[in-house]
Design goal:
The chain is an alpha/beta fold. It is 48% helix and 15% strand. A 7-stranded parallel beta sheet has the order 3-2-1-4-5-6-7, sandwiched between helices.
Length: 248
Amino acid sequence: MNIKLDGRRAAVTGAGAGIGREIALTLARAGAALAVCDVVREPAEAVAADINGAGGSARAYAVDVSDSAQVNATCDAVVAELGGLDILVNNAGITRDTLMLRMSDDDFDRVLGVNLRGAFFFTRAAARPMMKARWGRIINIASVIGQMGNAGQANYAAAKAGLIGLTKSAARELAARNITVNAVAPGFIATAMTEKLDPATREAYVQALPLKRAGTPEDVANACLFLASDLASYITGQVIRVDGGMLM
């Protein structure tokens, strides 16, 4: 089925590269006008240029999602310049992996600041125009690590587990205004980060998966496209794992 998002306005955070970039491109190809948000302006502008060059509509926004003032200003600008905000994908995230006994306070705080506080700030800001319009889709990019944990990623696992809790609470609060809130939890996805792994380690991860392949950014983006559409109008507060069967 060819999913269309014509007339919708979407914001994707962390959209300058990787999974976020693919989500932005996928929503744009479906007809949505895009606010391409990233902490660094140049990658966001490059993605917006790709969308505009393909006949779509996009604007780039530089924003540190862990700064609530920047998030509020960005959401205000998106609503003013795109004419509204219907879809939000909270994708921005970082990692600072190390064992707990070696993890600094800053390693812990910074990961939670971007991955969890950032999603809270953007959800809070985006909910206002969505509530006014009585329609909205909020999609949080979590991780299977938030459900299963992982050695060396206590900060990341805590942030993603918190994001799942935030998803369910927001879903309950916003449902009466026809706003759905869901999480997509990727597993082992082929990105620039996973490509840096030792080939033997990477292959071991892949062979442990029932589907015997790494996921792609497109796999994650397609799940977001479905959740952003009218086809998912009765789905809220859910965690959709895109993990090749890693966690069953």
